[in-house]
TrEMBL record:
Protein name: TonB-dependent receptor
Keyword Transmembrane helix: no
PANTHER family: PLUG DOMAIN-CONTAINING PROTEIN, TONB-DEPENDENT RECEPTOR-LIKE BETA-BARREL DOMAIN-CONTAINING PROTEIN
Signal peptide: 1-28
Location of the TonB-dependent receptor plug domain: 61-168
Source species: Duganella sacchari
Domain TonB-dependent receptor-like beta-barrel: 430-953
Family: Belongs to the TonB-dependent receptor family.
Keyword Transmembrane helix in record: no
Membrane-spanning intervals of the chain: none
Annotated keywords: Cell outer membrane, Membrane, Receptor, Signal, TonB box
Primary site of residence: membrane
Length: 986
């Protein structure tokens, strides 16, 4: 829609400004105003190839209010990438988090996944992800790309946009029949070959690496384009694998060099440990940490993804368009895993260390005998379903007024899709581990074990965990909005919104803490264990060729061994997940919002367009949590103190907040092909669901130094950001442009994690009790828990709470805390609005097509900086911005009438992914990662085309470390993925 040119008087401008609550004195520009509904204009662009897609994306950026980027489909049913997140990473400022080799979540301008809002056709979408039961991040892996017509990325705020996106608001738009009248249809088929499936042990490997993918789209209009229908569908199978080496339980510490409270670094050779030699020992105030364990795990995954959408449009009169649509997606994952690990006990050891602070072990060796060589397996499946039913009506009663009503009900549900639960682990062990060494001097951590004897001390099942997790997100939303053209060249936008968001996250654990052995080795036929070597599964990682690597382990079929141990125990229900949830958190958020926005063009020497708006929003929060009640602490093995839980109870807490959010956008036409933009806006990002949980939850495992737990705070305010943007854009050719953008975000009300010591449920612990102290007085060191346990079993076998090994079927022996013992201390993590942060950055974009040669390049670079970074030399909890990283993309393309080719390189710099690892407050840094993707299309004729694609063709690995590069958290090897297919247009 374009309005006729008109010159406005000062009086009329004052009236228009008053309508928008903004005063101004100037002349309106003699030019068409911005369209009342910019997205509708963009959808009308017909694209037929990669160059046309880039051209349409460029025009989206050029013609929008504020800083907007986007990606437009090359053709109906043909989005540029197989995964939406993979496409989004091509946009400056957007970085992705990968899972199972493909994009899953996004970070925008250094703002993490929880604070980016994803819309589907302008509607807020619910989230559910069993990998993060308490997050708000949208999982792009659930959506196929075939039905998507474009993605718009709004980097600056607008009054009409739903709140929640501090980094950006992303609008994913699907094909609608009235956008392209007439018949349009296509069908495509691909074969997907994932090489990572070939690099797996036989017990977890899928029987085929080549899997199918089919998709189709049908769109047509009837009755003189007054009735339209569009139907899209896709189905994909993918079999893949990844192998991971990790310090999976994190790093113990950090400690000071002049401390030795844990005895993890002995002073040197002594009578008790003549072999204890420390090279370059950390001293003074230098910090050091030691690994909790070292684990190698091998993972086979099968994925089936189904997407479908039906859209019906009806235009009874020229002034009214109605749309009814239903969207469905299902993502099913089946995972099998085998692993081998060694756990450290912080006893006598030798080690060699890096210099400086923090210091890390290059080599760490513990002197042990008859300890466990742990080998586990997992076999579980999950399913996520997304459903959305929406209705939209657009009424244009006159050339100056446009009204719109939009309503939808959407759900996202994730849960177990296996009788064995949503995740599980069956632990086995051979108790034949001697002296154990971990070498962290290369990218790959090398585990060495002396004295292993799998024949004399064969495998037996030890502990187990069966987990059932469930998450459901539900959104009900009603939006009424309008656009009124006033004084020919100006426009007032207004609207009312009501949004109700319900989230439920629940889980239960059925855990057997019998790590000393659940049953006897003789219960298991030797045919259950399948010998294998592990070196070949990590051949792309530097250091895996070390000859000192303990290169043997056993795989096994999870279901077979589970059945054997269940039968041998006589209690099969102990080896299945619970059929109820003992942790259940439910949150309801009701938000009401209204907004007003005024757009106009100014007839100054340099034409100016401005948009001034304000949004008011109020949210009520009701949070209810099922909190398990703890009854006792039992000491079951060397450093294992599990809690016994009783019947859980529900608790409910409430909260409320409101925000007034102004926004301002302005662009100046320096010349006909150059623009200067300035924007200011305030946005909010809502707290994570665990931060507003309505109760206190204790973690099930306690250690000698106490336990941990968490408590929520529903009264938390959202994070608020004040955003400044300045951008210069030069469109120097039909398909060419260069832009430079500067941005700054001042953020406040971040929820800080604070830990307080508490004694919930007044649980008594054997640690520090009368029997414990007597054992220490009889020459046991206070860190030698094995000595203390053996003393108690030998000298007080009938004391209250003491069950020696072998009595009443207790294989390992149990000591239960008694009323005379100390009350256990717990570190309870809670949340409050206490943190502030600021970040700033720059984005550089270049798109250039080399005339009619068919060649072109699209590249961008993003720089992000914040002074609020993690201090690796500080002890305790810290607040730091996660996800902050620089990134760049280089995409080369070629296109002619027959061939289309693209070579893309995406790079993301190191970033902080978490401030906690499996041990406590330690950072996790994802190291720099670059990936090469290629695609090639051959058009046989106007209807039939063939495609060849490659993902991660250079087979890059991903590595995560803690305070230093030697403090490995994990390193993962996957593999390239290739697709070959054909597409036919009707």
């Amino acid at each position: 829609m374009h309005y006729p040119k008109a010159r406005q008087s000062l009086m009329s401008l004052a009236v228009a400004s008053a309508c928008a609550a903004a005063a101004a004195q100037a002349y309106a520009q003699e030019a068409p105003a911005k369209a009342a509904d910019a997205p509708a204009e963009v959808q009308s662009v017909v694209v037929t190839g990669l160059r046309a897609s880039l051209f349409s994306s460029m025009n989206l950026k050029r013609n929008s209010d504020g800083i907007v980027d986007g990606i437009v489909a090359e053709d109906i049913g043909k989005f540029p990438d197989t995964n939406l997140a993979e496409s989004l990473q091509r946009i400056s400022g957007v970085s992705i988090d990968r899972n199972i080799g493909e994009g899953q979540k996004i970070t925008v301008r250094g703002v993490g996944p929880d604070f980016n809002m994803v819309l589907l056709n302008g509607r807020q979408m619910p989230t559910s992800n069993l990998g993060d039961l308490n997050g708000r991040a949208f999982d792009f892996a659930n959506l196929a790309s075939e039905a998507i017509s474009q993605i718009q990325v709004y980097k600056t705020s607008r009054a009409e946009t739903p709140t929640g996106g501090i980094g950006a608001t992303l609008n994913v738009m699907t094909a609608r029949p009235f956008d392209r009248p007439g018949l349009h249809a296509s069908i495509g088929a691909k074969g997907v070959y994932d090489t990572s499936n070939d690099k797996l042990p036989h017990d977890i490997q899928a029987n085929r690496s080549l899997t199918p993918e089919v998709s189709g789209i049908y769109s047509n209009t009837f009755a003189n384009n007054t009735l339209g229908v569009a139907l899209t569908g896709s189905y994909q199978e993918r079999n893949l694998g990844f192998n991971n080496a990790a310090v999976s339980n994190g790093w113990k510490g950090p400690f000071r060099g002049d401390e030795n409270s844990w005895g993890v670094i002995p002073q040197g050779p002594s009578t008790d440990c003549p072999a204890c030699v420390i090279t370059n020992r950390p001293t003074g105030g230098n910090l050091y940490s030691v690994p909790q364990n070292l684990n190698y795990n091998f993972n086979g995954v099968k994925r089936q993804r189904t997407n479908a959408q039906l859209t019906l449009q009806y235009k009874p009169v020229d002034t009214l368009v109605t749309t009814l649509d239903y969207t469905y997606s299902e993502n099913k994952l089946q995972t099998k895993r085998n692993d081998i690990s060694a756990w450290f006990n912080f006893g006598p050891s030798s080690s060699a260390w890096t210099s400086g602070s923090p210091s890390s072990p290059l080599v760490y060796k513990e002197f042990v005998s008859n300890s466990d060589i742990a080998m586990g397996a997992a076999d579980f499946a999950t399913k996520t379903q997304n459903k959305s039913l929406g209705f939209n009506a657009v009424w244009k009663p006159s050339s100056t007024l446009r009204m719109e009503l939009d309503a939808h009900h959407s759900t996202a549900v994730s849960g177990a899709d296996s009788p064995f639960g949503s995740s599980n682990t069956l632990g086995t062990a051979s108790f034949s581990r001697g002296n154990t060494t971990a070498d962290f001097s290369h990218d790959f951590p090398v585990l060495s074990i002396e004295g292993a004897d799998f024949v004399g001390k064969p495998q037996q099942v030890t502990g187990s965990v069966f987990t059932n997790s469930y998450m459901k997100g539900e959104v009900e939303q009603l939006q009424a909005k309008g656009a009124w053209k006033v004084l020919e060249a100006s426009e007032v936008k207004f609207g009312l919104n009501y949004t109700k968001v319900d989230n439920r996250s629940a889980f239960s654990n059925n855990q057997r803490d019998t790590w000393g052995g659940a049953t006897k080795p003789s219960d298991y036929p030797s045919s259950l264990w399948h010998p294998d070597t592990l070196r070949q599964y990590f051949d792309k990682i530097d250091g895996s060729g070390n000859p000192n690597l303990f290169n043997q382990f056993y795989t096994f079929n999870f279901a077979q061994v589970r059945q054997v141990v269940a039968n041998a125990s006589g209690q099969p229900n102990l080896y299945m997940p619970k059929n109820y949830f003992d942790n259940d958190a439910r949150t309801e958020e009701k938000s009401k919002a209204l907004y007003l926005q005024f757009n106009t063009d100014w007839d100054t020497r340099l034409p100016i367009h401005t948009s001034v708006g304000v949004r008011y929003e109020k949210t009520d929060v009701v949070s209810t949590a099922l909190v398990p009640s703890a009854t006792k602490i039992s000491w079951v093995s060397q450093n294992e103190f599990p809690i016994t839980f009783g019947d859980p109870t529900f608790t409910t807490l409430t909260g409320r907040y409101h925000n007034l959010l102004p926004s301002f956008d302005s662009d100046i036409e320096l010349t006909s092909d150059q623009k200067l933009r300035f924007s200011y806006g305030e946005t909010i990002g809502r707290p994570r669901y665990d931060q507003i949980q309505g109760g206190t939850t204790l973690n099930s495992l306690v250690r000698t130094d106490g336990g941990t737990g968490s408590a929520g705070n529903p009264a938390l305010k959202p994070v608020k950001s004040k955003n400044f943007d300045l951008s210069y854009e030069w469109y120097y050719g039909k398909q060419n442009f260069v832009s430079l953008g500067l941005f700054k975000k001042n953020l406040e009300n971040y929820a800080g994690q604070s830990r307080v010591f508490a004694t919930p449920f007044n649980l008594h612990t054997p640690v520090g009790g009368a029997l414990w102290n007597e054992a220490i007085a009889s020459a046991c060191a206070n860190t030698d828990t094995t000595c203390i346990r053996n003393y108690i079993f030998k000298n007080h076998p009938t004391a209250p709470g003491v069950t020696p090994p072998g009595v009443n079927g207790d294989v390992n022996g149990t000591i239960v805390g008694q009323p005379s013992d100390p009350v256990a201390q717990f570190q309870i993590t809670s949340f409050s609005n206490q943190k502030k942060a600021s970040l700033n950055g720059a984005e550089l974009n270049l798109q250039h097509m080399f005339g009619e040669s068919g060649f072109g390049v699209s590249t961008n670079y993003t720089f992000v900086h914040s002074g609020l970074r993690y201090d690796n030399n500080a002890v305790g909890e810290q607040f730091a911005l996660v996800g902050l990283s620089n990134s760049y993309n280089v995409i080369g393309i070629y296109e002619d009438k027959k061939w289309t080719g693209r070579l893309a390189y995406n790079w993301r710099g190191q970033f902080l992914s978490s401030t906690f690892d499996g041990s406590g407050p330690n950072p996790q840094y994802v190291e720099p990662y670059g990936q090469v993707d290629v695609s090639l299309t051959y058009a046989y004729n106007e209807k039939l085309s063939f495609q060849l694609e490659g993902i991660n063709v250079t087979n890059q690995i991903q590595r995560v470390h803690s305070r230093t590069q030697q403090q490995l958290e994990s390193v993962t090897q996957g593999g390239p993925r290739y697709m070959i297919g054909a597409r036919y247009k009707f």
